Amino acid sequence: MRDDIARVLIPSDQIQSRVHELARQITQDYAECDTLLLVGVLKGCATFMVDLARSIDLPLAIDYIAIASYGASTESSGVVRMIKDLETDIAGRHILIVEDIIDSGLTLAYLCAQLQRRNPASLRICTLLNKPERRKAEVKVDYLGFDIPNEFVVGYGLDYAERYRNLPYIGILRPEIYAE
Ligand code: IMP
Ligand code: MG
């Protein structure tokens, strides 16, 4: 698996300390709110969600949504579709979307529009990674781990064709892997 990685972009210890900083900020910002609801966008968010939630020092609930994105390609098709909806009624709730990476922004633009219609008390976005160069749809990021260059990355939950999610760091995938 390591041989498929061109280079490590963000080592595990840097991810962990940034996640703790984000959690500290979220803990402060939502101190006065009633039970924050973290909404994870499956499946890429899973690793980040667990580490983030564990270090937020507030009463919170967790739910997940699944959206069709890349399949085995590395480019967004621009076509977005909900595969699994929330189990929670979010009307009147404080919602924080937890995402692994924002690339074109199409996924989150679609998701935010869908969730806004359900009248949450507030709706914010927390993403571990952001590729600002690639934006096609505008999204306001409230909590950001790292801006990254326009490279295809895997690890810490992020996949290529369902592989590499278990790497503890964020690595740049060798282009030969997805050019094959
Ligand atoms: P967007 O709609 O283009 O913003 O796509 C966001 C989704 O595409 C993310 O939630 C990821 O699942 C996937 N994605 C975008 N860039 C990468 C990457 O570099 N590695 C792995 N997945 C990515
Ligand atoms: Mg994702």
TrEMBL record:
<keyword id="KW-0808">Transferase</keyword>
<keyword id="KW-0460">Magnesium</keyword>
<dbReference type="GO" id="GO:0016757">
    <property type="term" value="F:glycosyltransferase activity"/>
</dbReference>
<dbReference type="Pfam" id="PF00156">
    <property type="entry name" value="Pribosyltran"/>
</dbReference>
<comment type="similarity">
    <text>Belongs to the purine/pyrimidine phosphoribosyltransferase family.</text>
</comment>
<dbReference type="InterPro" id="IPR029057">
    <property type="entry name" value="PRTase-like"/>
</dbReference>
<protein>
    <recommendedName>
        <fullName>Hypoxanthine phosphoribosyltransferase</fullName>
        <ecNumber>2.4.2.8</ecNumber>
    </recommendedName>
</protein>
<comment type="pathway">
    <text>Purine metabolism; IMP biosynthesis via salvage pathway; IMP from hypoxanthine: step 1/1.</text>
</comment>
<dbReference type="InterPro" id="IPR000836">
    <property type="entry name" value="PRTase_dom"/>
</dbReference>
<keyword id="KW-0328">Glycosyltransferase</keyword>
<keyword id="KW-0479">Metal-binding</keyword>
<keyword id="KW-0963">Cytoplasm</keyword>
<keyword id="KW-0660">Purine salvage</keyword>
<dbReference type="InterPro" id="IPR005904">
    <property type="entry name" value="Hxn_phspho_trans"/>
</dbReference>
<comment type="pathway">
    <text>Purine metabolism; GMP biosynthesis via salvage pathway; GMP from guanine: step 1/1.</text>
</comment>
<keyword id="KW-0547">Nucleotide-binding</keyword>
<dbReference type="InterPro" id="IPR050408">
    <property type="entry name" value="HGPRT"/>
</dbReference>
<feature type="domain" description="Phosphoribosyltransferase">
    <location>
        <begin position="13"/>
        <end position="160"/>
    </location>
</feature>
